[in-house]
Specification:
The protein is α/β, with parallel strands linked by helices. The protein is about 40% helix and about 20% strand. Strands 3-2-1-4-5-6 form a six-stranded mixed sheet. The chain is globular, with a radius of gyration of 15 Å. The two termini are about 30 Å apart. The mean pLDDT is about 90.
Length: about 170
Amino acid sequence: MGRWEVPVALTIAGVDSGGGAGIAADLKTFAALGVHGTLAVTALTAQNTYSVVGVHEVPPDFVELQIRAIWEDMGVDAAKTGMLSSSQIVRAVARAVRSYGFSLVVDPVMVAKSGARLLAEEAVEALKGELIPLAKVVTPNRFEAEVLAGMRVESLEDAERAAKRIAE
């Protein structure tokens, strides 16, 4: 455990103005589990339950600075990613994880439920090559698994094959 009496979890993700996903949802989950939740904002979204109408990215250096500020004060027992938006942000997060060595869960958020793109096409390779190899756990949904594994996932057997490909 870090320097606090309760575990410190860090969410590195976007702010969903509708409150149903991203940092808002992660902090609610952390609190329900008795974990002190901290955050590094990667992007602000203007969204509601049916659409994303705008995305404003945080500069990658500032994402990294937020992570460092938490690490230096409280430590980080574990972190999870959500919306990372661009390859530059993916690389900034990967640098921080390598620097501080905390356990990482990667939720490879690519598309909102409404269909809006939340990870740039060009960022998928950075995610696959730089961040996923640092993760203890990767939690793609079916469609994210298809992109990461480069195959269709239509059965449990496909899901198992995709998981092996992603892990490799």
